[in-house]
Amino acid sequence: MAAEIRTITSDELHPWSVAVRRGFLNPSDVDDSEQRRAFLPLERTWGAFDGDRIVATLRSFPVELTMPGAIPLTVSAVTQVTTTATHRRRGLAGRLVTAELAACRDRGEPVSILIAAEWPIYGRWGYGPSTEVQSFSVDTRRTALVETSSASVEFVDLTEFRTAAAELYERIRVRQVGEISRPDWFWDVDLGIVQLPTRPEVPRAFHVLARDAAGSVIGAVRYRVETTWEAMLPAATLTVDTLLSAGVQADRALWGYLLSVDLVTEVTAGDRPVDEVLPWLLTDPRRARASKRHDFLWCRVVDVPAALAARRYRVEGTVVLEVIDHQGLVSGRYELTGGPNGAQCGVSTRSPDISMPVSTLGAALLGGYSVRQLARAGQAEEHRSGALESTDLMFSTAAPPWSSTWF
Ligand SMILES: CC(C)(COP(=O)(O)OP(=O)(O)OC[C@H]1O[C@@H](n2cnc3c(N)ncnc32)[C@H](O)[C@@H]1OP(=O)(O)O)[C@@H](O)C(=O)NCCC(=O)NCCS
Questions:
Q1: I need a labelling partner for 202 at 20 to 30 A (CA). Which of 181, 316, 342, 369 fits?
Q2: What does the angle CA 45 – CA 358 – CA 105 come to, to the nearest 5 degrees?
Q3: Separation of alpha carbons 74 and 65, rounded Å
Q4: How many CB atoms neighbour CB 150 within 10 A?
């Protein structure tokens, strides 16, 4: 009998959570449903049922995504997509994603977002990668800051850090294209204040804030240090878990502090933006060695006019897009007219300037990937000469989008 796809009831939270853990190779069956209930909307928590057993899972929650032009858009964040190993490759994940995408559109959320565990999974369902991150590693003995900061730095306890970092993040994310709002529970779980059995124990860490002359928090960093010695020489590595900065004074204060910690010879930071400012703060920028550049946030448009009208464009322009969607959710022709001050998009009968699969639209949505580059790879087609170039310019953003929030 085909598995039933539906949202779960309150009583099914524990077996659902065990199924999620199995999917992520965690054998724990501790009952954490009381903790989960607080932040898990049941009407958006899906299961595939084989009889009364839950054999595949998916859930979503609403967040605000910052679109180009610093426009907030409520979207659906999808997470905990798993299929139990005994039931894999029978189409269950596909059925859950399809059900959630239809519900997403019905709820009036024009875009579905997620972080893909593996690249090949989600393109088939119309998602495209839309932001990137990279890691940095600095040999602290070989470089220093060009200029110091007027901001002060101080250690704080976890409680103060949580409050200050959440407030600072909220100020930053509303202008950072690609970032999402973080629900309260995010901070509790991320900082290890609430420990869920599905997550590895959060290591103990140091918490430092940067303040300007008026005492306002302008930067926050959480880091860990692994202390090692080589033949009685210190060789500790400092790993940055989170670094939030409101501007150059905070960047200088935090990086300057991190690079100066005694006994530390290497500072590493992951999930940083691809236009990271760190190298430019250093006397020798080559000492900030970049690595592990990869995709992070993926977008799936479920309402083209609403998604495209909810952002601003770098230059004024008009383009007719033919969107191809194998799932049939948004297939059609759309005319977009937009610029730095506003945009409109609606269904069109005009002949298309460019055609593209909906996954390419997801990749271009935040300005992170160029339509022209994707066309070179056969993932968009130009029907009017010059249309790719002008559309690229419209969709491009002054700075690459960046998303640093795991969910
Ligand atoms: C990813 C996962 C949920 C897929 O579940 P599933 O029920 O086996 O997927 P489906 O049967 O619906 O697969 C549909 C298609 O996607 C393909 N596919 C699914 N997962 C894939 C993967 N990891 N790599 C490559 N292709 C994959 C299938 O081969 C199938 O292709 P086909 O239609 O051409 O035959 C499952 O493999 C899983 O639980 N993985 C571990 C947890 C995980 O990584 N979750 C994703 C979190 S973002």
A1: 181
A2: 35
A3: 6
A4: 10
Give me the domains of the chain, ranges plus CATH numbers: 4-109 (3.40.630.30), 134-293 (3.40.630.30), 303-394 (3.30.1050.10)
The atom of ligand 1 lying closest to the CA of 97 is 12
| 373 touches 395 (CB < 8 A) | no
23 CB under 6 A from ligand 1? yes
Does residue 301 register a pLDDT over 80?
A: yes
Looking at the predicted structure, is the pLDDT value of residue 35 above 90? no
Residue numbers annotated as active site: 122, 407
Give the neighbor-by-neighbor strand order of the sheet with 53-67.
4-7, 45-50, 53-67, 71-83, 111-115, 297-301, 128-129
Ligand 1 neighbour 121 (Cβ under 6 A): yes
Question: Is the alpha carbon torsion for 323, 325, 330, 332 positive or negative?
Answer: positive
The set of residues, in sequence order, having a beta carbon less than 8 Å from that of 188 and lying 6+ positions away, is 162, 194
The type of residue at 152 is S
**Assigned token pair, 404:** 């640093």
Exposure string for 267-290, b = 16+ CB within 10 A, e = fewer: bebebbbbebebbebbeeeebbee
Q: Which atom of ligand 1 is nearest to the CA of 85?
A: 39
Q: pLDDT digits over 143-189, tens only?
A: 999 999 999 999 999 999 999 999 999 999 999 999 999 999 999 99
Q: Whose CA is nearest to atom 35 of ligand 1?
A: 89
Q: Which residue's CA lies nearest to atom 22 of ligand 1?
A: 121
97 CA to middle of ligand 1, Å?
11
Q: Tell me: the pLDDT tens digits for 357-368?
A: 999 999 999 999
Give 21 Cα–ligand 1 centroid separation in angstroms.
16
Confidence of residue 201 (pLDDT cuts 50, 70, 90): confident
Question: Ligand 1 center to residue 159 CA distance, Å?
Answer: 40
Distance CA 223, CA 169 (A): 17
Going by DSSP bridges, is the β-strand pair 332-339/317-324 parallel, antiparallel, or unpaired?
Answer: antiparallel
- What sign for the dihedral angle of Cα 71, 370, 108, 169? negative
